[in-house]
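Re: flavin-adenine dinucleotide structure - here you go.
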Amino acid sequence: MSLRVVVVGGGLAGMAAAVALESAGAHVTLIEARKSLGGRAGSFEDPQTGEILDNCQHVLLGCCTNLIDFYRRINVLDRIHWENTIHFIDAQGHPHSLWGIDGLPAPLNLAAAGGLFGALTLAERFALARAMLAMLRLGPSGREKLTDVSFSQWLADHSQPASLIDKFYELVLVSALNERCRDASAAYAIQVFQEGMLAHASAYRMGTPACPLGKLYETLPCKDVRLGTRMIAIQFQSPRAVGIELGNEIIKTDAIILAVNYPALEKWIPPDLYKQDARFAKLDQLQSVPILGAHLWFDRPILSTPHAALMSGPMQWLFRKPESDGRAVHGVISAARDWLQRPKEECLELFTQQVRQTFPAAKEAKLERGVIIVEKRATFSPTPGVDHLRPTQSPPPAGISSLFLAGDYTRTNWPATMEGAVRSGYLAAEAVLNRPATFIVPDLPLQWPARLLAKRPT
Ligand SMILES: Cc1cc2nc3c(=O)[nH]c(=O)nc-3n(C[C@H](O)[C@H](O)[C@H](O)COP(=O)(O)OP(=O)(O)OC[C@H]3O[C@@H](n4cnc5c(N)ncnc54)[C@H](O)[C@@H]3O)c2cc1C
């Protein structure tokens, strides 16, 4: 008889676990409280217009090997649009770009664009090149030793100028980590550059879905998906979790994967079991960081490139909506703690001013409509030492056997991202089956110039 598994939570972590387990022959039931799949990386219907809007623009990079594998498994990889050029706009409104030369291995592919990157002074470009070399030489093992160090400390130790931090590091990292350099662990910050730029030529490519996020999951290869179904309790026969209660049904199961976000965990587990299971001991120390997303519709095209990284704020990134001529855009502010209490009208006024100042063609542009979504608990903060707080997917000795965790906050060696969520789902599925390395896809390999510069053998 096949193993019966209930996965609670239809975000990327839960979906990845469910799809992986089903592919291995398990009998899976996926429970999602909302009417659609995707969780934080999902979509909703705009009550005013009926248009399907994303919770927020989501971006992946070529180095997201497990997310790409998940998209392949659910047969939507062809809906991801890849960009080889990253477009920046400086404080004076001048465009700059980073592009890789096709056919050249990393990091040589980005060297020419980096050398010519006019948003930085020559001295800043040299400093950046020095830091990149130092990061390459660290390798993954050197990086892991920096988990308890802040990235701003590492930047100071490597004599990186304040102007370069403002113009480049903050902009890249705030979107990748949802945290400022001073608050982010050096290990996670360096990982962004090591794996996202330096290791492999396809790693830096930026992917965005060419359809609303929610559409990607519509044909999930999982037979028993229950949408609009909220788990109301977990049944325990101490120390095992043996079933879940829905409104009018109890599902008995061999294993439960709890793939809900961490602030909700405590309410599902009786206090004595919660205390006994080491996975929950430090969860209350994880800090959540907000992200602001703004859907903006202008009366004329304002953005001619598919996206723009804005080197002066308040919006940090703008994305042209798929199939739009540049009138409909999505703006993002990460690490948006200062934006939690701002009235919507004030935000829209500031964003319109920024658009008018940044894009010459938009000097007279009028905002026709704006929808602002501030996700208070967008991600956990990747602070120095955060890995000591993150739980494993499988139960520790004396933990609740048959209760597995998945979610971007669990221990994946990745920050809170779609890739981290999928990894957590695959790791949870592997743990349930008790089979190591069945689903996890390895990182992109270091290409030869990167290996040579890192002075490391194959
Ligand atoms: C605004 C914003 C922008 C982001 N941008 C990016 C980006 O550009 N790139 C990137 O890689 N990452 C980005 N992220 C991070 C990414 O969205 C998350 O890391 C990832 O989606 C987390 O997935 P998850 O499955 O771990 O959790 P969630 O998506 O939170 O899934 C948990 C699910 O559990 C369900 N649930 C909760 N309680 C119950 C219950 N009792 N019964 C049934 N179901 C329940 C919830 O409805 C939810 O669907 C962003 C996040 C936000 C919020």
